[in-house]
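Example 3.
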Amino acid sequence: MSATITPATAAKRVGNFTVAFDQVRIAGRAAVVGPHEGKGNLTAYFDHIAADPMWGESSAERAERHYLRTACRLALEAAGVRPEDVNYFLAGDLLNQLITSNFVAHSLGIPFYGLFNACATIAEGLALGAALVDGGFADRVLVGASSHYQTAERQYRYPIELNVQRKPTNHWTTTGAGAALLARDGAGPRLTLHTAGRVIDYGLKDVNDMGSAMAPAAADTLLRHLADTGRHVGDYDLILTGDLGRQGSKMFRMLVKEAGITLGGKHKDGGVMMFKPEQQAGAGASGAACSATVIFGYAIKEMERGRYRRVLCLPTGSLHSPLSYQQGESIPTISHAVVLEW
Amino acid sequence: MSATITPATAAKRVGNFTVAFDQVRIAGRAAVVGPHEGKGNLTAYFDHIAADPMWGESSAERAERHYLRTACRLALEAAGVRPEDVNYFLAGDLLNQLITSNFVAHSLGIPFYGLFNACATIAEGLALGAALVDGGFADRVLVGASSHYQTAERQYRYPIELNVQRKPTNHWTTTGAGAALLARDGAGPRLTLHTAGRVIDYGLKDVNDMGSAMAPAAADTLLRHLADTGRHVGDYDLILTGDLGRQGSKMFRMLVKEAGITLGGKHKDGGVMMFKPEQQAGAGASGAACSATVIFGYAIKEMERGRYRRVLCLPTGSLHSPLSYQQGESIPTISHAVVLEW
């Protein structure tokens, strides 16, 4: 206990856990998915639907890079910005050592920070990217996240060739990628508030029901966000969690209700929205691309059309690894909140 | 090409790739290592040397968490700060899905952003943490990185029980962790400048010689840093790369010399410094803990003693995965620069 820190309060902080951004906009964004996702509920919202999940490549890992690279290219084009005019590329994916993001960062040539908060990575990227723009450290930041059913399935579960029977609470990893270009100006919505997630662990150990493990993290972040900002559920047109799926969404609404908050019809979950029932995707979609494509596809397009004015995004992530699961550890989870306003 | 971005220049930017921080200090820091590292060249600089590499645990993965948790605790104590007074915890490690950082973030309870730039992760954390403090988004940010010889060896190479013969260009993963508390005030050095790394890939594929793969990234970042800031090698008392090792350091000096820059006696490499020759650590130390412990142990302690006034830290990272290597991909690499001034 050698030194004492001046107890200054940082200028941009709101309450205990939230920060406000004065001038950050989503200047461009893109959602790219595979053919399975393209046949789901959100077809009309995606900017590109690949005809082949493998994108003509011999490995799914190489294929995943095409999704992220294409989402980045389309987001830059939408903003009218060249890669060389972007100060930072913040990206993450589910693959060990983030190889999708690393190889895409090399092809883009933009200074790179690798991020990992599992399926909540896109929210981590939006938050840190917004801080870099709003704090005067960057004019333009590109943020992206990707996942691929085949790369995730064999890394987290089994080789798909084994055809292992799925459980009703299993999620189906989204094949796709989302990317957004953050800047002080631009045509898209403003990114105004961010409440950072804490790691929450209720001791659940069932990796075949990640929705239930992640629901407490989403509830924790939502409640802290509302307490910090003095806002109410009614101040938002949409509270978009993801990827809780059906099971996790039920638990999320229960936990929020126990805290005295009624969500009414305001809550949707990206994992629930993605697939049609006949696609047999278990509890719903998951993957770092799930929240990324639902926010940059569905939420922002519906904002552009005037359906939503204020959206609270709550991507959720499971922070376990196959090894931590095999070693008997519980599943740590996280959820970051970002607010988009038109 | 729908919108046009205002070509404003962000206030804190210096040149094309560098940002300046007005008021960020290392208010507390700690370097914790295992017994093998404790018997090396830097014994006197470490804050804690564990007697048992396994820290009394049955798995090396559980042991690694003790190193990071202890480094965080000691850094907070040195700054006189409680975890509940810290706004963000930014951390990363080499393990798949960053399980060391995730579990430590849970025990700390601080809002968490997971980072991965391999062995350059501590520089990524210092840069993003400094931006959060300097931009007014945080009063205090805790940054950490860890690695463990046994967890890394079996994940990246072979189970250590196989006793696979090592090559002279192999690195020895550092068992340990470093952590620092960033704030506007405090007793430690200022963090003044940061030049972000681009992903560099010269097409090298030998994972048994990561030093040669990473050297071009360190050279690229150093040259961009000097060009942006107008500084010369002579403006620094120490240029501390890591973890290039002996092979990579040779290549780094050659590349820098080819660009017309003479390093003279200013260059040291954390990977070279860590172990004694008789410890048979191949080309030198590596691991996310290597740069973290050498910066927070050696560099800052020597600044406190008045030996160095200005230190340019250039941690380096190999961004491959065992899978990308097996699939025949080359090794993408990165190096971020951070400047410490007394």
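The first helix of chain A runs from residue 35 to 38. The longest strand of chain A covers residues 25-33.
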